[in-house]
């Protein structure tokens, strides 16, 4: 028994050393290649910790543009790395796990959108950034969860074809007089958060405020105290109360807890995991920098059109 415990203890030490070695090697290669690491707020804690910048989709798109580094290692999912490649064509954008996708982004194709547009010739197409470059290229303007209301209200058209997130589209419709025609897409991680989860969490933590992401269903949003993008949550809790129930992907708790060690955060349920956001590990980040993989490239004709939709979004001023 003692021998076994000793062996386990040694194994623990070894793996800690391994992790430390990997971290050091990543930092060396980052310097050597003049690279910068960006990580979304849902990434694994160790990936967030090693990143130069963490943030939401909007913040990371802007960071990618402002960086002087030649290489951007994007720790997120495919559409985020694509956005960086669209906005910064002069840089090399790497996504460490090529299969890190977004199920919601896969719920619409450019062909299907082209067909839908024929039905609504007078509509403007607003496309959530959680979409492929091809779908962005077919859209008039992009939005993120942080600016969707402002983007929709900035448009002249009274009718909006909103793709691909029906929940975000529904959320926007509450703050706009425009007619929103939603696409039938959704985020599986947010859509499975139910009213019963919120009620249960509130019973367990009666003093906590409920923060929800606008990708949640309407009935969940109705029970929330506040609705924010992930960075919106990070900003809000700084000056708010002491306890929060968080209705979004659980990776955000790492940042919330790190920034506010004196406050308490609870996941709304045990199922709030996006597997794609957990795909990147320290090992795959190291391999990415060692082998320059996986380079995200967008055909130039698609990139130019998708860029117009992103640029239009970036010009919209936030009012809230
Ligand atoms: P935000 O960080 O922009 O709120 O992103 C939500 C999301 O689901 C990204 O996949
Ligand atoms: Fe896509 Fe949802 Fe995962 Fe975000 S959390 S990457 S929207 S599936």
How big is the Rg? 21 Å
Total number of helical segments?
15
Kindly name the structural category.
alpha/beta
Major sheet attributes: 4 strands, parallel
Helix share of residues?
Answer: 40-55%
What integer is the average pLDDT? 94
Stretches where pLDDT is under 50 for at least 5 consecutive residues are none
User: What is the count of β-strands?
Assistant: 12
The small molecules bound here are:
1,3-dihydroxyacetonephosphate, iron/sulfur cluster
Q: What is the global morphology? A: globular
Distance, first to last CA: 61 Å
Give the SSE order as H and E letters.
Answer: HEHEHEHEHEHEHEHEHHEHEHEHEHH
Q: Which range does the strand content fall in?
A: 15-25%
Oligomer: single chain
Give the spatial strand order of the biggest sheet.
Answer: 2-1-3-4
Task: Provide a compact summary of the structure.
The chain is of the alpha/beta class. The protein contains 15 helices and twelve strands. It has helices at 2-32, 45-50, 57-66, 78-87, 110-119, 133-137, 148-153, 166-173, 188-191, 195-204, 218-223, 230-238, 252-259, 282-291, 300-315, and strands spanning 35-40, 53-55, 71-75, 92-94, 124-128, 141-143, 159-163, 179-182, 209-212, 226-227, 243-247, 264-267.
């Amino acid at each position: 028994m003692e021998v076994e415990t000793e062996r386990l203890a040694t194994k623990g030490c070894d793996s800690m050393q391994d992790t430390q070695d990997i971290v050091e090697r990543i930092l060396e290669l980052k310097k050597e290649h003049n690279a910068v690491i960006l990580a979304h707020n849902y990434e694994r804690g160790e990936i967030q910790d090693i990143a130069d910048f963490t943030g939401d989709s909007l913040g990371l798109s802007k960071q990618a543009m402002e960086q002087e580094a030649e290489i951007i290692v994007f720790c997120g999912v495919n559409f985020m790395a694509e956005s960086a490649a669209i906005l910064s064509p002069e840089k090399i954008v790497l996504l460490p796990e090529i299969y890190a996708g977004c199920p919601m982004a896969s719920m619409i194709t450019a062909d299907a959108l082209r067909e839908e547009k024929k039905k609504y010739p007078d509509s403007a197409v607003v496309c959530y950034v959680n979409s492929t470059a091809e779908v962005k290229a077919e859209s008039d303007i992009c939005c993120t969860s942080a600016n969707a209301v402002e983007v929709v209200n900035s448009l002249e058209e009274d009718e909006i074809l909103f793709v691909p997130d029906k929940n975000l589209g529904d959320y926007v419709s509450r703050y706009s007089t425009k007619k929103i025609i939603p696409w039938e897409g959704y985020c599986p991680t947010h859509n499975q958060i139910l009213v019963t989860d919120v009620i249960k969490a509130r019973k367990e933590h009666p003093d906590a405020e409920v923060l929800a992401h606008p990708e949640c269903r309407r009935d969940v949003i109705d029970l929330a105290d506040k609705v924010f993008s992930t960075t919106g949550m990070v900003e809000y809790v700084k000056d708010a109360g002491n306890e929060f129930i968080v209705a979004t992907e659980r990776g955000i708790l790492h940042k919330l807890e790190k920034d506010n060690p004196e406050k308490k955060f609870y996941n709304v349920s045990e199922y709030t995991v996006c597997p794609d956001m957990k795909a990147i590990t320290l090992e795959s980040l190291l391999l990415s920098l060692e082998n320059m993989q996986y380079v995200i490239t967008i055909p130039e004709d698609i990139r130019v059109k998708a860029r117009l939709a992103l640029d239009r979004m970036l010009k919209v001023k936030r009012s809230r």
